[in-house]
Amino acid sequence: MAAINPLRSIRIWLVIFIIGLVLSGVTAFPLQSELSLLVHLSANLHLADHAPVLNQWLITVHTALTDENARYPFLAYGTDWLAFAHIVLAIAFIGPLLDPVRNKWVITFGLIACAGVIPLALIAGPLRGIPFYWRLIDCSFGIFGCIPLWIVHRKITRLEVQATH
Question: Residue ranges per domain, the chain?
């Protein structure tokens, strides 16, 4: 079995990362309907019996979001911009997709941004009343985002070394 071409491997990892960014962005648009579905599923799966704290958190967030959207729908505009930002960031990774060596800085930027997720979740989370286990879930997005970017960074560095020899 032949090894995969380094440039092809870089592009595969970047496409995975870009898809993840876009999906995490577009799912910020229909938050209320997604949360309604999640609360409905959790009731059918009897989540309250297995994870009562998580179940109560989902119900609390659903209630708050439903109330906010009914009384102050303009506040959802903030999550629309969050979704848009994810999509714009995904577009930025097209540069490394086309020319990884020349656009390696975008990968470094992405790694820094992923690392920044952790202190944001751990500092802002308690200030906003976010449960600790949920802050860990938020931190995982930064950690899982770093994995493909770190792999891509290493592969680009190898390409740079090969180009100089």
Answer: 6-158
